Amino acid sequence: xxxxxxxxxxxxxxxxxxxxxxxxxxxSASSIFHRYGPRGIxxxxxxxxVGEISDDxxxxxxxxxxxxxxxxxxxxxxxxxxxxxxxxxxxxTERYPLTDGARSSWLADVPGLFHRRAPGNTCxxxxxQGGNGTMERPLNHSKGxxxxxxxxxxxxxxxxxxxxxxxxxxxxxxxxxxTHGHELGYLPAAMLAHIVWRIAGQGDSIADAVRDAxxxxxxxxxxxxxxxxxxxxxxxAAGLSAGxxxxxxxxxxxxxxxxxxxxxxxxxxxxxxxAGDFExxxxxxxxxxxxxxxxxxxxxxxLGASLGYGAIPRRFxxxxxxxxxxxxxxxxxxxVCQPGGxxxxxxxxxxxxxx
Length: 355
Prior knowledge:
By secondary structure, the protein is an all-alpha fold. It is built from 17 helices and no strands. The two termini are 31 Å apart.
């Protein structure tokens, strides 16, 4: 598959779900429906004329930048993604502009990424320590959803050059483990990257991509103690999506999304249930008691990759904060998947990702 519309759809779709959910992230479902009506929130509550993204989309962009830098410079994905996350950490703790040259990509020069949008405590504390956790040597035991909500670029990046979905999955897990040390902090990231790869790289349906990801995980993580629980919850989400249970009741049975396995399961439920309708999928994904922006972002990544950028209603794209930056990153991810794509000898590319 590997068409630009798919790449744009994945990143813009994730950002749209994030922006829709960010407004109601810390509200209960009853409060959401009381404020916005029987369907809940269905459109951006604009601030300064835009639907504001949260730290979820910010970190997704920095994940992409780390991957692109690794491909241009060293091939060391862990080090480059960690350096990119440290760039993001500086945008949350320092003022724009940064006055030194100690940053790894152009994103640290984008003023709009310096807005502090409820960054996760786990990400911030891990990055204050350098953000160099691994699956074997974790920095903490967090299973928060801050690892999975930023993993979609790994699925896109490995779509070309003869790469496999297993490479995407392992890199998604590696990136999440930099800050989230519990298995349920990084295994869902592996699954999301695998799902995105199958959709974007092979043109799979969402159902087939989810099934393939579930089948692949035991061989990739044979010693994982919590994998069976993750797979069981994902399977429950798939079953509920084919039933007649009310969306809110179904989501409540899966959890609230503050931890990685629940966030992925809620997103999978919404993406499967509304596989042909981006708006219905992300609206369902944010109107509940839990981590609305993260579940919205993950569902938006999956639906956007499946349906494409052109299928996302314009009211979700026209007023989206940093839309042009997100599209540029999507185009850069797409370009490296093509034969003869850009590299460090390309001067403009090197200025973006060759530091």
